[in-house]
Write a structure and sequence with these properties.
Length: 222
C-alpha cells in the first residue's frame, strides 16, 4: 500500500477513537516499512500475533515502540519476547502465566499481561473461562506472580454479522471487568477489531486492536 493511503487510513481510524481509548495497531503480516510509516505518523503501540515475526520486527524498528503480543503464546517461546515485550494480551492458561513470570524475573522485568477470556461461541477461539480467569486473578492477588502485572482483560467476539450477538459477548467481558475492578484496580479492557471496534467502545472497551482498517487486507502468502 502507498504511504499516503496508509496514513489516511490511520488518521481516519484515529478520528473514530475517542480520547482515553488506546489504539493498538495490529501489523501482523505487514512489512516493517509500513509500520515505520504509521510510527512516523505518531503511532507508538503495535500488536503482532506471532513470536518470530514480533522478534524480527523488534530488531529492525525503533526501540520506543510498545509491542503487544495478541496471538496464542506457547510456553517454549516466551523466552524470545520476554526481554522487550510490553504487554502480552493473549494469556490463556496458568501454565503460560507461570512461564512469563519466570522469564520476566530472569530479565529483571515486570511484564504486563491481559487475561484472554473466551467470550465467543465459536470453538476455535483460545481463552480462559470466566471462572478460570477469576481463579488465576486470585492467585495473582496472593502474590504468586511477582514479575507480572495483570492490567486487564482481552476478548474477541464471534465472527458474525449479528450485532446483537457481538454486543452480548462484549458485555459479558465488560461485566467480568467491572466485577474484578471492585476488588482491585484494573486498567485495560481490550476488545474490538476493525469491523466491530465502535460497538466494542460502546460496550466499554478502552483499548482496541485494529489491523486491516489501517494496513489494508492481509496477504497470507509468504
Ligand atoms: C488480527 C487480529 C486483530 C486485528 O484484526 P483486524 O480485523 O485486521 O482489525 C485483532 N485482535 C487479534 C487477536 C488479532 O489476531
Amino acid at each position: 500500500m502507498k504511504n499516503e493511503s496508509l496514513i489516511s487510513n490511520f488518521l481516519a481510524v484515529k478520528n473514530q477513537i475517542p480520547e482515553g481509548v488506546q489504539l493498538v495497531a495490529v501489523s501482523k503480516n505487514h512489512p516493517a516499512d509500513n509500520i515505520k510509516t504509521i510510527y512516523d505518523a505518531g503511532q507508538k503501540v503495535f500488536g503482532e500475533n506471532k513470536v518470530q515475526e514480533l522478534e524480527e520486527k523488534y530488531e529492525i524498528l525503533p526501540k520506543d515502540i510498545e509491542w503487544h503480543l495478541i496471538g496464542h503464546l506457547q510456553t517454549n517461546k516466551v523466552k524470545y519476547i520476554a526481554p522487550f515485550v510490553n504487554t502480552i494480551q493473549s494469556v490463556d492458561s496458568e501454565k503460560v502465566l507461570k512461564e512469563i513470570n519466570k522469564e520476566a524475573f530472569k530479565n529483571s522485568r515486570i511484564i504486563n499481561i491481559l487475561l484472554q477470556v473466551k467470550i465467543a461461541e465459536e470453538d476455535s477461539k483460545f481463552g480462559l473461562t470466566i471462572s478460570e480467569s477469576k481463579t488465576i486473578f486470585e492467585s495473582y492477588l496472593n502474590g504468586k506472580f511477582p514479575n507480572i502485572k495483570i492490567t486487564g482483560l482481552m476478548g474477541m467476539a464471534t465472527f458474525t454479522e449479528n450485532k446483537n450477538q457481538i454486543k452480548t459477548e462484549f458485555l459479558k467481558l465488560k461485566n467480568l471487568f467491572d466485577d474484578i475492578n471492585k476488588s482491585s484496580s484494573f486498567e485495560t479492557l481490550s476488545m474490538g477489531m476493525s469491523d466491530d471496534f465502535e460497538l466494542a467502545i460502546e460496550c466499554g472497551a478502552n483499548s482496541v486492536r485494529i489491523g486491516s482498517a489501517i494496513f489494508g487486507a492481509r496477504n497470507y502468502k509468504e
